[in-house]
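Severity: low
Component: inverse-folding endpoint
Summary: output formatting inconsistent between runs
Steps to reproduce: submit the following C-alpha cells with default settings.
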C-alpha cells in the first residue's frame, strides 16, 4: 500500500523500497529522517511551483544526498556530496536506470550545497536543493502550509535538529577539510574544528605555478 504524508505520495515501487531500506540501514536516524523530509519538502515545493518531475528520481536524490556522511561510505579524497552522488548512480545502474536520468540524480546530489545554480536546472535537481534548503536553512519555510509542515515533522521528527545536523556535518567532513574549498561546508569546520584554516581563492591564484 502506498504511503502518503502531507498529501505527498511516497512512490510504491521496488526501487523506492530498496532505497529506503538501504539508507535506513546505513545512515543514522537523523540523516534518514532528514533525507525523507527533503523528498517531502521538495515534492511540496515542486507541486506549488507547477513543476513536472519524476518522483522516483527525486526520491533517490533526496535519500542519497547526505549518504556521503555515513561511516560505511565516507572517504577523504573528495567532497561528501560526490560520495553520495556516486553511490546513487551505482544504485540506479543496478536497477537498470542509466544515462541521463542517472546523471540527473548524480547532479542533484553533487550540487545540493551549491547555492542558486541547481534552481535553474532540471526539476529533480532543483527540488533536491529546495528540499535541503527548506529543511536545513529554512528557505521557503513559509511557502509550505502549517498543516503540511506539522504532518511532515510528525512523520519524521527533528529533535534538536540544528545542532545535530551541524555535528553530523562536522564529523563527516573533518577528515577532508580541503574538499570544503569554495563550499558552504567550510563554515562548519570554521566553527567546530580548532585550527581549521579555510582556503583562499586569492592566495591560490597568487601562489600558482604561473610566474605572473
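Observed output (run 2 of 3):
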Amino acid at each position: 500500500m502506498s504511503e502518503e504524508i502531507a498529501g505527498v505520495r511516497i512512490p510504491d515501487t521496488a526501487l523506492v523500497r530498496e532505497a529506503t531500506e538501504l539508507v535506513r540501514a546505513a545512515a543514522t536516524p537523523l540523516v534518514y529522517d532528514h533525507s525523507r523530509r527533503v523528498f517531502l519538502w521538495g515534492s511540496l515545493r515542486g507541486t506549488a511551483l507547477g513543476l513536472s518531475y519524476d518522483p522516483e528520481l527525486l526520491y533517490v536524490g533526496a535519500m542519497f544526498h547526505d549518504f556521503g556522511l555515513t561511516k560505511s561510505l565516507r572517504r577523504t579524497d573528495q567532497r561528501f556530496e560526490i560520495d553520495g552522488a556516486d553511490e546513487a548512480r551505482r544504485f540506479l545502474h543496478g536497477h537498470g536506470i542509466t544515462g541521463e536520468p542517472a546523471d540527473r540524480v548524480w547532479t542533484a546530489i553533487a550540487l545540493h550545497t551549491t547555492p542558486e545554480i541547481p534552481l535553474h536546472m532540471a526539476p529533480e535537481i532543483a527540488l533536491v536543493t529546495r528540499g535541503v534548503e527548506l529543511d536545513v536553512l529554512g528557505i521557503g519555510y513559509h511557502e509550505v502550509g502549517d498543516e503540511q509542515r506539522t504532518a511532515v515533522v510528525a512523520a519524521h521528527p527533528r529533535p534538536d535538529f540544528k545542532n545535530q545536523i551541524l555535528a553530523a556535518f562536522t564529523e563527516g567532513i573533518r577528515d577532508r577539510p580541503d574538499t570544503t574549498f569554495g563550499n558552504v561546508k567550510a563554515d562548519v569546520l570554521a566553527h567546530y574544528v580548532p585550527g581549521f584554516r579555510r582556503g583562499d581563492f586569492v592566495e591560490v591564484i597568487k601562489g600558482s605555478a604561473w610566474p605572473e
